[in-house]
Amino acid sequence: xxxxxxxxxxxxxxxxxxxxxxxxxxxxxxxxxxxxxxxxxxxxxxxxxxxxxxxxxxxxxxxxxxxxxxxxxxxxxxxxxxxxxxxxxxxxxxxxx
Length: 97
Known about the structure:
- By secondary structure, the protein is mostly helical.
- The protein has one domain (9-96).
- 78% of the residues lie in helices and 0% in strands.
- The protein contains 3 helices and no strands.
- The protein is elongated, with a radius of gyration of 19 Å.
């Protein structure tokens, strides 16, 4: 049973940890999925394979390309949208009672 002083019991620390885990997911798993689904749907990638794809992705990330940032942050954004939807359903259910 975790105590109140546990690091994970504090909401800001927990939220930061969640953000970092989902950011890591967006930086590792998501590019892999995008590359291979793209190859299945559109055919062979025009570059030198997955390594070249990730290199271009990281360069565009470093140059503050908003679409690449949206891609990388999408796991966290989707999770937050899920949270908001769950809260809205709960509130709507309380108003009907």
